[in-house]
Design the sequence.
């Protein structure tokens, strides 16, 4: 029987691994850690073609996801195919196909950073802003006090180190696959994806904001527009999860021309 409820973190059958993932993520994702990850992972020194990167996600199961335990490539194809079936624009289909591709970070990753196949707290899961107070709309808010920044008076206020109304483009989010892919594509010379696609890629895991309504002191008018874009995309990111298995090679002929149209055919620097 198809599972009907998504993101039920209190379900009796929820894996202890999901909760443990969130405990480590909340504890370790501090402002210092995030700044360190930016230096470490935003070097763009490893060329790799889009399809090779996609194939690497055959080897990654997202431990933070309570709804699906298939290799991540399946979730990407399921999302893209649903967007395609609804007759949505080609760029959005491609965005569905690649939105989680930042998880290839594990190729450069390590356990200590939370960016490996075994330790994923620096790579996947709902993200939050670092440098200001953690909101109660985070999953498992009881873990918020484990983060040492929450005991620093410079950081533990609603705006923390930021200006009121500065907008989410101007804050640091917890480090993960969203920000990584956004930065990789931002650095990619032949990227012509529309701005909406880049918003979907960068903020799709920012649940405390897009679904929890937190950070009212930080957001601005531009973010209200972003919210519409994210809500639209989220339908496909979440409600297309199923046990249906695809083979990337079977859908490649359809998606390759779209990928070349928006990303070119050369390698991407990771
Ligand atoms: Fe994601
Ligand atoms: Fe996703």
Sequence:
């Amino acid at each position: 029987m198809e599972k009907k409820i998504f993101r039920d973190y209190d379900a009796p059958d929820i894996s202890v691994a999901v909760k443990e993932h969130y405990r480590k993520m909340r504890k370790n994702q501090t402002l210092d850690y995030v700044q360190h990850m930016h230096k470490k992972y935003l070097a763009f020194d490893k060329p790799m073609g889009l399809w090779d990167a996609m194939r690497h996600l055959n080897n990654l199961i997202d431990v933070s996801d309570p709804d699906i335990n298939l290799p991540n490539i399946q979730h990407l194809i399921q999302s893209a195919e649903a967007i395609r079936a609804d007759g949505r624009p080609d760029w959005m289909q491609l965005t569905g196909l690649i939105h989680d591709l930042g998880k290839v970070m594990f190729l450069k990753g390590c356990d200590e950073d939370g960016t490996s196949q075994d330790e994923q707290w620096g790579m996947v899961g709902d993200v939050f802003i670092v440098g200001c107070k953690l909101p109660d709309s985070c999953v498992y808010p009881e873990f918020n006090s484990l983060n040492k920044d929450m005991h620093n008076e410079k950081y533990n206020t609603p705006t923390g180190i930021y200006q009121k109304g500065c907008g989410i483009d101007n804050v640091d989010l917890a480090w993960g696959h969203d920000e990584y892919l956004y930065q990789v594509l931002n650095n990619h010379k032949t990227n012509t994806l529309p701005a909406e696609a880049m918003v979907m890629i960068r903020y799709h895991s920012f649940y405390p904001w897009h679904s929890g309504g937190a950070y009212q002191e930080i957001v601005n008018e531009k973010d209200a527009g972003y919210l519409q874009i994210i809500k639209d995309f989220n339908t496909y990111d979440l409600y297309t999860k199923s046990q249906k298995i695809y083979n990337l090679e079977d859908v490649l002929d359809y998606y390759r021309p779209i990928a070349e149209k928006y990303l070119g055919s050369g390698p991407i620097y990771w």
In short: The mean pLDDT is 95.
